[in-house]
Each structure stands twice: as C-alpha cells, then as structure tokens.
Automatic annotation (TrEMBL):
Entry's EC annotation: 3.4.21.105
Protein name: rhomboid protease
Gene Ontology annotations for the cellular component aspect, listed alphabetically: mitochondrial inner membrane
Broad EC category: hydrolase
Catalytic activity: Cleaves type-1 transmembrane domains using a catalytic dyad composed of serine and histidine that are contributed by different transmembrane domains
Leader sequence segment: none
GO biological process: signal peptide processing
Membrane topology: Multi-pass membrane protein
Domain Peptidase S54 rhomboid stretches: 22-162
Length: 193
C-alpha cells in the first residue's frame, strides 16, 4: 500500500497527468450508503451554490475541491503513517456544504430523519468542523476527517476570498493558456496518441 500512496506524489515520465488519481477520486465512494448520503447532501445544497457561483464556476470549484481534499487527506495519512486509499467525493461535497453555510449562515437546516430539530447553517458548519477536527486528532476511522476538513476549509476560503481572487481575474490566465496552446500546436507540440 505504501508504494501506491507514493506514486501519487512522484512524477512518472510516462504519465501526462499527475493529478488524475486525485481528480478521479472525486467520484469515488466507499459503499452504496456512502454514495447515497453524499448524493443527498449534494442534491440539497447544489442549487444554492449554483445560484451563488453559476454552473461553470460550480463545476470548477467542485473538481478543484475533490483534488484539494484528496491531497489534504493523503498528506494527513502520510503524516500519521496510515496508508489507506482516500475518496475525494466527501471532501468535494463538504466544499459545497461549507460554501453555502458560509454565505448563508442564518439559513435554517434540519437532519432528514429528525426534521423537528432545526439549527442555523453557521452552527452546523461549526459542529462539522469541530467533529472532523476531533476525529482527525483522535485518529477516528469512521470518516476521512482530513478530506472533510480540507474540503470545508477550501469551501469557506473560496466563497470568502477565492471568487474575487481567481474567478473574477481569470481572463489574463485564460488568454495566456490559449496563447501557449496555440504556440505549442504550431510547433508540433500538440498531443500525440
């Protein structure tokens, strides 16, 4: 298992995409229950995030969150010596949840099986972060607490600062990317399969 973990962080000369395992883990789930719970949370919160960010930005944030939360999970696992696979789906969904809770902290939420108990989104986010911090510190293995924390912190950061820093200033980066691709394609630097 140690070799599998190490390959995510090394550069293989035959590999063209170093982040592909972390990106693909964004769609991975541990069990059918895990997938059902994640899809319910995504369904519950995605319309709010899409109305805040728009479809294109939501997709970019969701995929980035999967990579970032998986990376945070791998770093935590390497630091603790627990070499287990990481599933970035929960971290990406935590980004969505944290983004909504950060932008709308007074929104009322309830747990599906206990709808009579309501709480604010801000309090829910604080409780989730406290739970995952305790889980990470105490070595609980029920959830990937590092991925959850990485996703939640990324979601909070993105809706607070990242939108202004990245999305609103993306035009020069997109122009430079297109110019670089055009130059490489002209020199025969295109993809060869």
């Amino acid at each position: 298992m140690r070799r599998i973990m190490f390959t995510y962080f090394t550069s293989d000369p035959s590999s063209k995409a170093l982040c592909s395992p972390m990106l693909l883990s964004t769609f991975s789930h541990f069990s059918l229950f895990h997938m059902a719970a994640n899809m319910y949370v995504l369904w519950s919160f995605s319309s709010s995030v899409v109305s805040l960010l728009g479809c294109e930005q939501f997709i970019a944030v969701y995929l980035s969150a999967g990579v970032i939360s998986t990376f945070v999970s791998y770093v935590a696992k390497m630091a603790t010596g627990k070499f287990e696979p990481s599933l970035g789906a929960s971290g990406a969904i935590m980004t969505v949840l944290a983004a909504v809770c950060t932008k709308m902290p007074e929104a009322k939420l309830a747990i599906i099986f206990l709808p009579m108990f309501t709480f604010t989104a801000g309090n829910a986010l604080k409780a989730i972060i406290a739970f995952d911090t305790a889980g990470l510190a105490l070595g609980w293995r029920f959830f990937d607490h590092a991925a959850h924390l990485g996703g939640a912190l990324f979601g909070m950061w993105y809706v607070t600062y990242g939108h202004e820093l990245i999305w609103k200033n993306r035009e020069p980066l997109v122009k430079a990317w297109h110019e670089m691709r055009t130059k490489n394609a002209g020199r025969g630097g295109g993809r060869s399969d």
